[in-house]
Amino acid sequence: MRRKLVVGNWKMNMTHAEAAAIVEAFVRLVDQKQDVDIAICPSYLSIETVRNLLRRTHIGVGSQDVFWMESGAFTGRISAPMLKAAGVTTCIVGHSETRGKFGKLEVPESTVGYFAETDETVNLKIKALLFQDITPILCVGETLAEREAGTTDQVIRGQLAGAFAGIDGAEFANGVVAYEPVWAIGTGKTCDSAEASRVCGMIRGALAEILDADAAQSIRVLYGGSVKSSNSGELFSQPDIDGGLVGGASMVADEFSRIVLSA
Ligand code: PGA
Asked: Which distant-in-sequence residues (6+ apart) come within 8 Å of 217 by Cβ?
């Protein structure tokens, strides 16, 4: 039986003082909710502050990204051993914003693709995290153009196959996959729960083929993309959805707590 998991992705928001205020309020609201796994992914600069505040709770601290090399001349990068030493237990990999496919093009065209994440770098990051025993949260999902072209399942299968090259089921058995349709991220457009559940079920089937049947049963498959307390209960009650990856709504303590309580 897979436990539900709710992860907050704060993206490039909040100073460490702002992060501390939200975490303190959030912990008071969800401390009793012990039957759901929870993680918060603040900016690198707030990891230590957030981790110290979460030390005596069941809530984990995660990272939003990692670089795959362990150390060296890589200006501006953060490695998996550094995350491990800072107490990070989980890490997002392959988010559509780092893959460079922003959901809405309100950002300058020149910044799209800036992070240049590919299936190959996603694969290297997953391996670096597994080596440090940090749980990867692999994000997959289609753009609006891909959905309209009817290639959603094919795109996601390709992302999964690329991400897991050279990785076996036992290694990723405690890992997490988040289905995040790019068109639903930060847009307020949630994927309808029946379709989100269908895609998450398709992902589980693909995991059985690419990894193995045991891993496909133990890996948690989350939904992400405009999750809020008004839709989280319905999404999380779908049999193939094991929780959520929450962006905007995770930065408001009582809204995020309502999402967790609905799981
Ligand atoms: P959102 O972001 O909840 O703000 O749509 C989700 C995500 O990008 O992980």
From this structure: 2, 204
Ligand 1: distance of its center to the CA of 249 in Å? 8
Instruction: Note the pLDDT tens digit of each residue in 74-113.
Output: 999 999 999 999 999 999 999 988 886 544 455 555 555 5
Q: What is the pTM of this model?
A: 0.94
Contacts of residue 212, Cβ cutoff 8 Å, sequence gap at least 6: 168, 169
Q: To the nearest whole percent, how much of the chain has pLDDT over 70? A: 94
**What is the pLDDT, as a whole number, of residue 103?**
46
Domain boundaries, the chain: 5-261
User: Alpha-carbon dihedral of residues 92, 199, 170, 165, nearest 10 degrees?
Assistant: -70
Ligand 1 atom nearest to CA at 96: 8
- Write the residue with the smallest CA distance to atom 6 of ligand 1: 247
Copy the structure tokens of residue 22: 């939200």
Q: Which are the contacts of 158, defined by CB distance < 8 A and separation ≥ 6?
A: 119
Tell me how far the alpha carbon of residue 207 lies from the centroid of ligand 1, in angstroms. Answer: 23
Active site residue 180: yes
Specify whether 95 is catalytic: yes
**Which atom, in ligand 1's list, is nearest to the CA of 249?**
3
| 3-state SS, residue 241 | coil
Which CATH topology does 5-261 take? TIM Barrel (3.20.20)
